[in-house]
Amino acid sequence: MTVLTPAEEARLTEHHDRHDRAREILGVDGVEHTERLRDTLRGHGVTLYPVSALGLLLLVDGFQGTAFTVLTPDLQRALGVGLGALAGARILTFVATVLAPLPMAALASSRLVRSGRVGRASICIVTGLAWSLITLTTGFVTSLLALIGVLVFDGLSSGSVAALHAPLLADSYPPRARVRIYALYAQIATLGALISPLLVSLLAGPFDLTWRGVFLGLGGLSLLGTFVSFGLRDPGPGKFDTEAIRSETLGDTSHVDLGFFEIVRRLLLIPSVQRILTGFAVFGVLSIPLATFISTFLYEQYRLGIVARGFFFAGVAAVTIVGLAVWGRRGEQEFSKDPGEVVDRAGTYLAIGVVFVVVGAVVHLLALAFVFIAVGQTVIALMSPGLTAVSQSLVDARFRPHLAAILGLFTAAGAIFGTLFLSSINQRFGIVGSMVSLIVPGVIGAMIVRSARGLVGPDMDRMIESLLEEQDLAALHASGGRLPMLACRGVNFSYGQLQVLFDVDFTVDQGEMVALLGTNGAGKSTLLKVVSGIGLPQSGTVRMGGHDITYLDAERRLRLGITQIPGGRAVFGPLNVVDNLRCFGYTLGSSRKVVDDAIGRCLAAFPRLDERKGSAAVTLSGGEQQMLGLSKALMLKPQLLLIDELSLGLAPVIVAQLLDMVRSINEEGTAVVLVEQSVNIALSLVDHAYFMEKGQMRFDGPAQELLGRDDLLRAVFLEGATKGAARADGRPARRAKTRAAR
To answer: What are all long-range contacts of 203-206, with beta carbons under 8 Å and residues at least 24 apart?
Structure first.
């Protein structure tokens, strides 16, 4: 049992207090009592305007699609095209709608937005104006090509809804109100689904407008709704949560901005997000395609006409709005107590909702069918606000638009799958059979979503720990402290289901040379992959000079000064020696003269390579290939050089030459991490050593002290270990020095 000093106990207690405070800021305080929404908003100085404005934008965004659906026969006659052509145009619109959130998320993370010159709210308003003008323009189209153009642009402009609305709501309201805010937003969405077809019927019926007039009228109403949203403002990412946690310390934290696909990749590694995405995919199955099949079901089973079906769906929408309003407060209480419980309930709602819809399909009384379908649709609708609130709370506010875009993409993918799935079942078993078949994806999806309950808390804690680590670094920097050049903290890594690294901590100081030792399969090479960006950890952080580079691409890490020389695989076999060196140089975009000068230095350092500079690398001996690989460091002059098994299979005389070059590289200021099986070789070079066993760091200290650890240096290492104080070339090793602070 480890005995802590009073100072260590105080630091640990302080850390726990900060962690608990961060959870409170995120809205998870364990208190089930929830004050009235009005009081919560007033206490934080916010109003319902943001959710009302965004909800109105969402509502008017549906005008174009609804009008196109209702007026399809009129468009077909006026433009003289077939139904297949219009269906193809609609497919193109759907594709544009599915893909549009991705560039919107990329725009939200661009320098233009990060600098504050353009706000996310402004993007929402501009896109609202765009689709309003597109709706107006539809009333003037005279050809199929023009119609396709306006429909595709409408789909593209709608990308702001999926990518930006949920993050803006998260940033505009305190965490203790978010579930109710998302529920209110869902109510407005449901209201829009009810109002849109009624508006089309009203304009085409009592007002006796042509299809062109209907589009003009809806476009005008859409413009009016967009004008109402002109007061919308971007409060900035994480105003009430992640940035509030960061601001609780003095100093300013800095980070390396991730690219779009780096952020997406990072989000897809979060275990609970992976399962929540499944929930949104199933939600997509049960949204657009299910509504279409219910309409057909009502016609085939009960012979309901257009008006009767309209009233049926209006009734379902009314029940859903009431259900969302009632559930909002309860959902907020569940979130405050345990966000994992919200996810668990969402999975339960999904299963119950599907069962109710299925029962509604098999009963033979219209009133009962309405009750079961309405309750089923309402319960399914409760999934969205809860899962959205939880997912937005699991990631840094800077990444929320990307997560929202991914959620929208999975919802759309679910809609596509649902259409194909239900259509194939319908052809074989009829409309009732297709609705009954929903029990399969519904129950499977519910089980997957519920399985995320135990993952939400740890994922939130990992996000909090990352923020607290930024605080510590900022405080250290503000106090004039020195940051390590490389710091890995709590790194966990798996190959599929096989976990290889377990909470690994690893630090390298500026200009230091360390040895990373361990048994075969201990995880040494895997740790180097995590540092160089070839492998991404499931959790933990990798920082360089205090900058978080955990999910940065390997190519970008190279430009930051991290270079890896993999054992036995450090050269391009078909290329000759000079071309290999040229590839290394051009990696950094250097000019030809700079590269030629660097090649000259490498050939001077390794005369044997100069002799064989025209030979293909594959024809070189093992030692010559390692010389060529090591020349990479001479070319790039990295801040950190990672060498994996430098001496593997080489003669002692060759190893001695390579070790001399490694020393020279280190003496020029490059920090070196040397992975070696040979304790003798490792201790001939380094002052500090790490020892790994079964994916865990078992030793961290002066290299000479490692010789006294017989429990680590087993028989496979003992041969020659007692000579480890002597250098490989026979000269005495440098005296070990203990680093000041780790």
So the answer is: 204/70, 204/71
